[in-house]
Amino acid sequence: MTAAAPRDRNDLYTHAALARLLAPRSIAVLGASPRPGAFGDRVLANLGRYSGAVHPVNAKYTEIRGMPCHPSVAAIPGGADCAVIVTAREAVEPLAREAIASGAGGIVIFASGYAETGKPERAAEQDRLAELARRSGVPIVGPNCIGITDYALGMRVTFMPDAAIPAPEGRAIGIVSQSGAMGFALEQAAQRGVAVSHVLTSGNSCDVDMADYVAYLAGEPACGAIALLFEGMAKPARLIAAARLAAEAGKPLVVCKIATGEVGAQAAMSHTGSLAGSDAAWRAVLSREGAVVVDDFEALAETASFFLKAPPKPMAPGVAVICTSGGAGIMAADKAERHAVPLPQPRPEAMEVLTARIPEYGAARNPCDVTAMVINDPESLGACAHALAADPAYGALVLPSVYASPLAVARVPFYASLTRQYGKPVCIAWLPEWLEGPGTKEMERDPEVVLFRSMDRCFATFAAWHRRAATLARGEAVTSFPAVRDAAARVLAGAGTVLTEREAKSLLASYGIPVVPEVLAASVEEAVAAAARFGAKVAMKVESADIPHKTEAGVIRLGVAGEEAVRAAYAEVMAAASRVAGACVAGVLVQPMVGQGIEILLGARTDKMFGPMVVAGLGGIFVELLRDTVIAPAPLALGEARALLEGLRGAAIFRGFRGLPPVDLDRLAGILCQLGAFIADHAGTVAEVDINPLIATADGLVAVDALIVRSGPDGPSVERSGAPA
Q1: Domain residue limits at 418
Q2: What's the number of domains the chain is made of?
Q3: Residue 261's pLDDT is what?
Q4: Cα–Cα nearest to 56, from 66, 23, 36
Q5: What angle do CA 705, 711, 717 make, to 5 degrees?
Q6: Which among 1, 442, 544, 631 has most CB atoms closer than 10 A?
Q7: What three-state secondary structure class fits 406?
């Protein structure tokens, strides 16, 4: 066998390139041992059900576990597809070289003590393994990895205890985890009936990483959905590309990112030697590709199971709730409201059935309470469920289960039949504290019944289902401004590190962003004349690239009216500017005061990891107080921008609040797109942009202040000033 050609590490491994590693016909265990408890012994034991050939390798022995033991990997007749190195770190590199020379199709390394230690010499050892993989084209998993599994093959290449996971009968969930232990913790969902096809852990990812695994599973027939647990990676573009492959293959990708806070990010560096990155940016870039990002580890398996079983597109936005407990119905309504999932009332045809079958002390509505009388009239539950499932207002049904008993087991075939007949997911919200009570395993195993052990997660998943479908359905083009790109680039090339407010607004205006009119006054007389021209009240601000944060410097006066007030304000702001050491002042900007309205912050930045991004949120004090902001990669399309704005927690204010005018959301989304086009066009030059505030009044939207910061000599900075993400 000959090794593959050298590869560019930025490229994803194809499914075919990883097939010998992840779906091997033969496995060599380098460092195999007969000693009970040794990694080499555990791996051989775990391969007891493997359908391919197993080759122990250790020069000390001629036989282990009844199998011939080879003195070297080169001595294996016909070689081996997958070489598993189970030795200590010191012996790993020579064995890896031997495996590559023998024609192995891939290598798995368990040993730890590499880059995760923080020691330069250990990081260098890991780098040498990465270079081996790159030059040979032979994929390497690890080091510091717990292992990989393929349950269709009975392949369990790990030293973790054998969990006796059965081969999936149909399509199942492929688990990808940067953390080995957490990956195998997810694997145990199979013990309660969840269908699992693979567990693929990456450890330090010297070569094969999570993006490669996701790309592999995107092309793997046995995998129907992918559950990804990760901490971070230095090249997000690889995972974004893999997420795109999964979406194109119709494989829902459900992601839980840990290391989302400062302490967590530090832990990620010491645990795997990877970069955590920005949680908000990760969410934004993955969601754009149709991935579903969950907040909690506990939601990962349940959400992935839903997407494995549910159709990719809901038939309708509404959800019907059928329960035997009024309290369960109230709980469902609360969670539906929390996650903005509509519970529309039944149409007349369905209502007629409900009214006929439900006692007067029940609820012939949605949520539908058939009451405990279903014990005496078992057919009433079925009649009501069929009526609601047939109602075109509903895309899914929720049946809360309030008591664990044999009756729950008996109802599973009925639940499955509803899905088959109507094509709508039937979700059981399991409320008993007997979490593994009768019926749970049967529901998990059934390919058409979805089980949630949390009402909240159930409705959060419905919301994610609709968002994903909307994202994948979007086909509109992103906003672009090719006609002004070159002219803006020339202006930026001649600017300083921080542009003046006037320069910044002029550039943004060239991209169609509305800005407040203004006059630069170089003297108090010019300021008086400008104020008279605008009439009524004006705003006065010192114009200086050296004073980007004007409020803190005291160089702004608002609501200035009359000649005397203008003269006084001019003197005050110029005096305040003189106290800023080294500040070069061009004069005072005079602007008409914009009427009362809703203050909105729009921002953009070029991130070293993620590239151009836009940020939106409520402006003024709400930015710091509520931290209610959203972020997305740029450029973006109009529908995407509108959905982003509607995702703000305070989005209701856009509809008008306490006398404030409603906001033209389509126009606001258009401005966000224009800002996205600007940062995308100039990502190599601009580090960040602030429009704070953009004010929405009854007359429209206008930017009254802007800041543009150019990149430093080392390129864009991840740090930001004023554009929260």
Answers
A1: 312-473
A2: 4
A3: 66
A4: 66
A5: 95
A6: 631
A7: helix
